[in-house]
């Protein structure tokens, strides 16, 4: 174990602490409590207190944060419905051949070397290419996107100037793209959303740009970690990897277990209680900020047997890596598909793959949100 909430989880399923930002929060680390509260009608989003808020202009905030993740019903329902159709199981399954093609291209490039950084060579480019193609972002701008969205997702690690610059550049580009797609629509998601905005579906301009921001941020950093953390965990558990290679039908269950064991997010972004709630012998007062520590909840010994063991034969653990309730991850079917393809094809192509520095634990992104390995040197 290595995450920020590790020591706290032992102190009970509901507790109080003050984050390093100075905000007092109610921290939930229990599995049952997380499920109950995430489905509770009085657990809602508050107007988000985002990073660098004191120096950001209202305009910039409006154009990036009017998205479903920060919204409550009825806005949430309306916004989510607009993209739900693009993320149905059938639509996502239809992407499979293209995702395999992208993975093959990356594996071919990797094969030219002997030792590579898996993040840079494989886990990162695969999901960013998929999400950019899905939305309709041209290949020439993807490297820019990679840089901007990294500043975005790791906002607290950057200065206000860097954050505002990245946001402004990305907004300018999204605006340019919207104008282009308006003139020449295609069958991608952005064209569909523009049609919705113009067709009376009550999608405002700010909501449109915010939606693109959300999909880009939510749609790739997390999937990068599903792939990297997953490969790392399997390489550290050769018995599990051998079992998977011998019985590839176990791949879907293995992906679920990897999401439970070392999932991409340490926590969901904060919620707030809008009325007092009694839970596990504690009372959460109206107005309290609630943080859900997803990784400890997924290893709650009251829910999972031998929680610290990676076991791909485990019956469905109903993990919380994708959250729960109305904000349950919209992209889960896509993330699962990408995870299965990425892991399956990697070990098929490089059956002798191993950690290049097995004696060293890889460096992870600091902070309490992401659970991301920054670099994973592997020997092909
Ligand atoms: C929401 C995790 C991949 C789009 C969420 C939430 C979690 C999550 C925990 C809920 C957050 C909360 O309650 O505060 C993950 C993980 C992923 C992943 C672990 C990869 C393994 C994706 C992908 C997409 C996506 C690929 C889109 C292409 C979204 C969206 C929401 C969301 C739009 C907001 C849903 C709403 O507010 O109704 N994700 N996600 N995610 N995710 Fe994902």
TrEMBL record:
UniProt GO MF annotations: heme binding; iron ion binding; monooxygenase activity; oxidoreductase activity, acting on paired donors, with incorporation or reduction of molecular oxygen
Keyword terms, alphabetized: Heme, Iron, Metal-binding, Monooxygenase, Oxidoreductase
Top-level lineage group: Bacteria
Lineage of source species: Bacteria, Bacillati, Actinomycetota, Actinomycetes, Propionibacteriales
UniProt cross-references to SUPFAM superfamilies, sorted A to Z: Cytochrome P450
Pfam families (alphabetical): p450
Annotated protein name in UniProt: Cytochrome P450
Signal peptide: none
Entry's family note: Belongs to the cytochrome P450 family.
């Amino acid at each position: 174990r290595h995450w920020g909430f590790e020591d706290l989880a032992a102190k009970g399923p509901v507790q109080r602490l003050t984050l390093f930002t100075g905000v007092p929060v109610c921290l939930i680390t229990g599995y049952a409590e997380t499920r109950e509260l995430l489905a509770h009608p009085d657990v809602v989003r508050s107007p988000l207190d985002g990073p660098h808020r004191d120096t950001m202009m209202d305009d910039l905030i409006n154009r990036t944060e009017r998205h479903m993740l920060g919204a409550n019903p009825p806005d949430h329902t309306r916004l989510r419905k607009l993209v739900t159709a693009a993320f149905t199981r059938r639509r996502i399954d239809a992407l499979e051949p293209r995702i395999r093609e992208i993975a093959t291209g990356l594996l071919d490039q990797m094969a030219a070397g002997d030792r590579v950084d898996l993040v840079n060579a494989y886990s990162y480019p695969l999901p960013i290419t998929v999400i950019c193609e899905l939305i309709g972002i041209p290949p020439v701008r993807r490297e820019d996107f990679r840089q901007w969205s990294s500043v975005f997702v790791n906002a607290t690690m950057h200065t206000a100037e860097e954050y505002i610059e990245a946001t402004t550049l990305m907004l300018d580009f999204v605006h340019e793209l919207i104008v282009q797609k308006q003139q020449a629509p295609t069958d991608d998601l952005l064209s569909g959303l523009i049609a919705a905005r113009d067709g009376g579906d009550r999608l405002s301009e700010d909501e449109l740009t915010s939606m693109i921001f959300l999909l880009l941020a939510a749609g790739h950093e997390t999937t990068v970690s599903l792939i990297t953390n997953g490969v790392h965990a399997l390489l550290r558990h050769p018995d599990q990897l051998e079992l998977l290679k011998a019985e590839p039908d176990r791949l879907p269950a293995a992906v679920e277990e990897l999401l439970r064991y070392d999932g991409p997010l340490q926590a969901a972004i904060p919620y707030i209680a809008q009325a007092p709630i009694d839970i596990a012998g504690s009372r959460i007062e109206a107005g309290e900020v609630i943080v859900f520590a997803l990784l400890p909840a997924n290893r709650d010994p009251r829910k999972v047997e031998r929680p610290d063991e990676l076991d791909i034969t485990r019956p469905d653990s109903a993990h919380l890596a994708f959250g729960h309730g109305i904000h349950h991850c919209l992209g889960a079917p896509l993330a699962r598909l990408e995870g299965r393809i990425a892991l399956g094809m990697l070990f098929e192509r490089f059956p002798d793959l191993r950690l290049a520095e097995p004696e060293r634990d890889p460096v992870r992104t600091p902070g309490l949100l992401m659970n991301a390995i920054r670099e994973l040197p592997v020997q092909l």
